[in-house]
Amino acid sequence: MGPLDGEEKGITIESGLERLEGLLAERGRSGLLACHPHPLYGGDMHNEVIERIVEEAGGRGYSTLRFNYRGVGASTGSYSDGEGEIEDCIAAAALLSRVVERIYIAGYSFGSYVGLRAASRVGTRAAVGIAPPTVAFDFNFISMLRIPVALIIGGRDDFSDVSLLKGTGAEITVIEEADHFWRDMKDLLAEKVLDFFDEH
Asked: 58, CA 20 to 30 Å: which among 27, 101, 151, 199?
């Protein structure tokens, strides 16, 4: 895996028959796994929201892993309606678990669905869903998770209906000035994500 020097290094993650590209930085014994937005709308591991959260996590001493789902960037395969991407997240978590003691998952938009669906299957300590797109996915499954979950939503997010999330039992934070893309709000968002993980 490389020395504990804190720098991101390119790795390959085996997910079933697919080979996924990822960036791993080994630091502390807590690890952040970041799940990017929808690949059919340009989402990849270099998304600005994902990059800012990874940067914040690294600054707090977390090991970090971000990766491209199947069919994105240099990852093999093709988009798999969310189910394949959940398997990709599980594979990434398995790799991260070999270098850290505690795994935390943060997913943005489509990545919130992927990460939260995978969370209960990988021994995650806690998970955060950012801008969960309720217009496309049902998030009621969150109520069955037995880990701390936070949902962070922009008050101007046209893709996320807070009223559909209130019965999930998750800790919900609404940032009134933010939209779905967190324009000019990424620093605040990253702080809130890592503050939640620091508490758990």
From this structure: 151
